[in-house]
Amino acid sequence: MSEDKHVVTMLVDNEPGVLSRIVGLFSGRGFNIESLCVAETIDPLISRITLVTRADMTILEQIEKQLNKLINVIKVRELAKDESVQREMALICVKAAPEHRAEILRIVDIFRCKVIDAAAEHYIIEVTGDEGKLTAILNLLKPMGIKKIARTGIIALLREPK
């Protein structure tokens, strides 16, 4: 069986220790969490956790059942790409040698991102999009010299009915 990438979202009580128990469930079974994002929802008593993991469908079903057994977990759902909106944000610090500055700014314009910090030696770029967009811009900026990157990991919401 192949291990596919899965985006799992859950609503949980916004209390200390909840995230620790969820992460412990994954690590205790030997599963890696590729990305993890947690934030309060519109209701301050509830948080949304979005995580990405790789597993086959049988394992994913077991994970979902175990998550649903945790007392502070309200709802768990896997989000398929076609039924959800998925985005990631990255801050990219790229070397801005004089001979590359115009090209970097063209790339920023093409990808509709923003330069949020500029200095004589670097730009920090903010980019938001799907995984493909982030990979594409990183590939274009790599030859100029990426100094560092910070990524949020995937966040996602189920699409509302049309």
Descriptive account of the structure:
The chain has 162 residues and is α+β, with helices and mostly antiparallel strands. The chain folds into two domains: 4-78, Alpha-Beta Plaits, CATH 3.30.70.260; 86-154, ACT-like. Chain A, domain 2 (Alpha-Beta Plaits, 2-Layer Sandwich). Helices cover 28% and strands 43% of the residues. It has four helices and nine strands, in the order E-H-E-E-H-E-E-H-E-E-H-E-E. It has helices spanning 18-28, 57-69, 101-110, 131-141, and strands at 4-13, 33-40, 46-55, 73-78, 84-95, 114-118, 122-129, 146-151, 155-158. Strands 5, 6, 7, 8 and 9 form a five-stranded antiparallel β-sheet that branches. A four-stranded antiparallel β-sheet has the order 2-3-1-4, with helices on one face. Strand 2 (33-40) and strand 3 form a beta hairpin.
Q: CATH class of the largest domain, anyone?
A: Alpha Beta
Poorly predicted sequence stretches spanning 5 or more consecutive residues: none
Going by CATH, what is the homologous superfamily of the largest domain?
A: ACT domain
* CATH 2nd-level architecture of the largest domain: 2-Layer Sandwich
Give, in order, the helices and strands: EHEEHEEHEEHEE
Structural class: alpha+beta
Helix content: 25-40%
Tell me the number of helical segments per DSSP (H or I, 4 or more residues long).
4
What number is the mean pLDDT?
93
Kindly report the CATH topology of the largest domain: Alpha-Beta Plaits
SSE topology sketch:
Layout: E1 4-13, H1 18-28, E2 33-40, E3 46-55, H2 57-69, E4 73-78, E5 84-95, H3 101-110, E6 114-118, E7 122-129, H4 131-141, E8 146-151, E9 155-158
Antiparallel strand pairs: 1-3, 1-4, 2-3, 5-7, 5-8, 5-9, 6-7
